[in-house]
């Protein structure tokens, strides 16, 4: 298997740990083999310029063209040009995260309705399979 996601300037990452968990950021500089400098941009994601460990982020397929140590204004322009938020919304990981957030916000009665809907779907599928076998 060939790697396609490399730690590089301009790579969009998803923060997976800490107070900024679930937010997107852009790598703007590489410090060493354990850490890099990221920037949000603040106006779009709310992530300020900071040093973060690679273990606390997830590399995405999305990449923008920016110079090393780019300012927030430059990063915002690159994000808008590349339509990063639109690309992110189309990824399977973003869809899965959205589904997880919706599930977590359900109350007891909503979870019950989901369970009943799953049962109904399962019985319909089983009936169709029986018809196809016969």
Protein described:
By secondary structure, this protein is α+β, with helices and mostly antiparallel strands. It has two domains: 1-84, SH3 type barrels (Roll); 91-134. The protein has helices at 42-45, 72-82, 84-89, 92-104, 108-133, and strands at residues 11-15, 24-30, 35-39, 50-53, 57-63. A five-stranded antiparallel sheet has the order 4-3-2-1-5. A hairpin with a 4-residue loop joins strand 2 and strand 3 (35-39). The protein is elongated, with a radius of gyration of 20 Å. The termini are far apart.
* Total discrete domains: 2
Helical amount among residues, as a percent range? 40-55%
- From the helix content, strand content and strand pairing, which structural class follows? alpha+beta
Number of distinct helices: 5
List the helices and strands and how they pair.
Elements: E1 11-15, E2 24-30, E3 35-39, H1 42-45, E4 50-53, E5 57-63, H2 72-82, H3 84-89, H4 92-104, H5 108-133
Antiparallel strand pairs: 1-2, 1-5, 2-3, 3-4
């Amino acid at each position: 298997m060939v790697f396609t996601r490399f730690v590089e300037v301009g790579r969009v990452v998803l923060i997976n740990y800490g107070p900024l968990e679930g937010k997107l950021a852009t790598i703007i500089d590489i410090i060493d083999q354990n850490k890099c400098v990221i920037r949000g941009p603040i106006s779009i994601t709310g992530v300020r310029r900071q040093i973060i460990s690679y273990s606390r982020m997830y590399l995405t397929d999305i990449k923008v063209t920016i110079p090393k140590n780019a300012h927030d204004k430059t990063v915002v322009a690159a994000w808008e040009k590349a339509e990063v938020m639109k690309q992110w919304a189309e990824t399977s990981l973003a869809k899965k995260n959205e589904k997880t957030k919706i599930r977590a916000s359900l109350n007891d009665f909503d979870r019950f309705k989901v369970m009943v809907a799953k049962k109904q779907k399962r019985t319909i599928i089983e009936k169709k399979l029986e018809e196809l076998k016969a």
